[in-house]
């Protein structure tokens, strides 16, 4: 079963296994995400979410199964696949001693954007996240919420088909968290970008989202919020999640 | 992936390294003070103790300060290579190495670019050191300063590649003490940086053999000959071979399929 049956999924994973030598971390993981969908990868801490994201982004490699991004196999066509992904990691990957604009220019260069095009896109993305006036400031001077906005703006610079965010609201205060969650949903709704959002926080899921529940390295449910509730027998996604994971939410 | 993409990516990495270098002035000062302390204090003290006979490439008796200058240049590059390796461990812990690794160009190209950017910084450090040394009458012929430039890129790349290899294997930031004890000190003292090989040979032939196998010895000798405006083909070839071996192993280390990266950074989450 897949989150949404489609002929051209943006993300397609099948038969994925992974272990660190101390027992399996991921077992037979498989799902796909259709274009323009906001999919939530929901799992308690230690479920294997970060490992899965490291495999999608080719930081790790799995001998079994396959991962395709926009039709490109991440193992065989890693360059094409990575060019289509925008990533926001759990820990900030911004250079604190450089300015916001310098950080974004670096990313643009890594993705081969020309100087003028890069500047245009930097201005556009920073404006979208209301950060343009902070472009000349060092990242060190920004608060956590603003750093996250910069990271999402950066992940969108090369116009990816697919935005991957690994617990991006960790450590943020409630208003910043709400703003980031709303922004990301808006990107999928209005920008047509496909989003995979990893989290263990139920309140980051909106009604229209797809949900993939990962527990102890296995997918225990996937589908729309309604279908997951129906399958798990919960009245709400929180209740379903508790049933599916034995109340392992942390 | 066009040629323009590769060019922009390389320049982007170079520019970031330059910006970081400008931000970290204390690192630059430390890199300059360290060899100057050796040159102006240690060498002055040891001038009378260690007599150096005429050894190639020198054609006359030389002052001890002149003898150890190439070794100190090697030291600058060795520290730079190790420091950038540790900054990569730090980067990886803090995550900014991930930004590089998840970008679309081939990983070997990204790592070689980073290596070249780090080496450019070390070359700048060396010429600044030589400029200060010049005021203390430690100088080379103009041809020496010119021949030195390509040689410094080679030796700097070799030491950077060693650092890159270590960074793919070291997990934690605190291991700088380990790197000092097990890499920097043995490489530096077991080389021709402070004394010629024949002196070591007289005292302990086994140590002399080890020093002869040490790629740092050959980096120092390449620098020594270059500063005299000469070429030492044997040392250059050994330095180049060491660069190829360290570089290849580092690229394997950073390869997700074969490397140590997942094991070193890993943990379920």
Tell me the span between the first and last alpha carbons of chain A: 27 Å
From the helix content, strand content and strand pairing of chain B, which structural class follows? mainly alpha
Mean pLDDT of chain B: 86
pLDDT < 50 runs, ≥5 residues of chain B: 264-269
Span between N and C termini of chain B?
Answer: 33 Å
> Beta-strand percentage of chain B?
under 5%
SSE succession of chain B: HHHHHHHHHHHH
The best one-word shape of chain B is globular
Count of discrete alpha- or pi-helical segments spanning 4 or more residues of chain A: 8
Q: Number of DSSP strands of chain A?
A: 10
Write the layout of secondary structure elements.
The complex is a heterodimer of chains A (250) and B (269).
Chain A lengths: L10 E9 L4 E10 L4 E5 L6 H8 L9 E4 L2 E2 L4 H6 L1 E4 L11 H11 L4 H14 L15 H13 L5 E5 L7 H18 L2 E6 L10 E6 L2 E7 H8 L4 H9 L5
Parallel strand pairs in A: 3-8, 3-9, 6-7, 7-8
Antiparallel strand pairs in A: 1-2, 1-4, 4-5, 9-10
Helix pairs in contact in A: 3-4, 3-5, 4-5, 7-8
Chain B lengths: L2 H21 L1 H22 L17 H31 L1 H6 L5 H29 L6 H28 L6 H14 L7 H7 L1 H9 L1 H13 L5 H21 L7 H5 L4
Helix pairs in contact in B: 1-5, 2-3, 2-5, 3-5, 3-6, 3-7, 3-10, 5-6, 6-10, 6-11, 8-9, 10-11
């Amino acid at each position: 079963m897949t989150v949404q049956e489609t002929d051209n999924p943006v993300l397609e994973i099948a038969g994925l296994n992974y272990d660190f030598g101390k027992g399996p971390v991921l077992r037979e993981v498989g799902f796909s995400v259709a274009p323009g969908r906001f999919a939530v990868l929901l799992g308690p801490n230690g479920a294997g979410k970060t490992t899965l994201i490291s495999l999608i982004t080719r930081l790790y490699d799995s001998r079994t199964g396959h991962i395709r991004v926009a039709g490109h196999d991440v193992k065989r066509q890693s360059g094409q696949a990575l060019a289509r992904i925008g990533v926001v990691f759990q820990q900030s990957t911004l250079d604190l001693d450089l300015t916001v604009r310098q950080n974004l220019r670096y990313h643009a260069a890594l993705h081969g954007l020309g100087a003028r095009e890069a500047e245009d896109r930097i201005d556009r993305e920073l404006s979208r996240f209301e950060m343009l006036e902070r472009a000349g400031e060092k990242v060190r001077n920004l608060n956590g919420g603003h750093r996250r906005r910069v990271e999402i703006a950066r992940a969108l610079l090369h116009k990816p088909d697919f935005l991957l965010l690994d617990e991006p609201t960790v450590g943020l205060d409630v208003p910043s968290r709400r703003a980031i969650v709303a922004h990301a949903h808006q990107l999928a709704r209005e920008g047509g970008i496909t989003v995979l959002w990893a989290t263990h926080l139920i309140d980051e899921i909106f009604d229209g989202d797809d949900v993939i529940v990962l527990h102890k390295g296995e997918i225990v449910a996937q589908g729309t919020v309604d279908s997951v509730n129906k399958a798990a027998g919960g009245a709400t996604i929180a209740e379903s999640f508790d049933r599916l994971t034995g109340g392992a939410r942390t | 992936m066009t040629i323009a993409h590769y060019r922009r990516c390389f320049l982007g990495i170079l520019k970031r390294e330059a910006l970081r270098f400008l931000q970290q002035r204390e690192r630059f000062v430390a890199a300059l003070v360290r060899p100057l302390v050796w040159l102006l204090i240690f060498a002055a003290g040891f001038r009378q103790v260690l007599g150096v006979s005429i050894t190639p490439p020198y054609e006359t008796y030389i002052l001890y300060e002149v003898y150890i200058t190439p070794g100190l240049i090697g030291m600058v590059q060795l520290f730079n290579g190790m420091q950038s390796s540790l900054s990569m461990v730090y980067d990886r812990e803090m995550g900014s190495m991930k930004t590089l690794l998840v970008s679309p160009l081939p990983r070997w190209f990204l790592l070689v670019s980073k290596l070249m950017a780090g080496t450019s910084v070390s070359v700048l450090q060396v010429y600044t050191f030589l400029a200060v040394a010049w005021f203390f009458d430690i100088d080379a012929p103009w041809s020496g300063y010119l021949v030195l430039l390509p040689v410094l890129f080679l030796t700097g790349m070799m030491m950077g590649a060693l650092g890159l290899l270590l960074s793919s294997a070291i997990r934690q930031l605190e291991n700088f003490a380990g790197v000092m004890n097990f890499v920097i000190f043995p490489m530096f003292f077991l080389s021709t940086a402070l004394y010629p090989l024949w002196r070591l040979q007289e005292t302990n032939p086994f140590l002399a053999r080890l020093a002869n196998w040490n790629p740092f010895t050959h980096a120092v000798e390449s620098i020594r000959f270059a500063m005299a405006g000469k070429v030492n083909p044997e040392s250059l070839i050994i330095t180049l071979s060491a660069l190829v071996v360290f570089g290849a192993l580092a690229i394997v280390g950073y390869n997700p399929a074969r490397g140590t990266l997942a094991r070193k950074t890993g943990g379920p989450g």
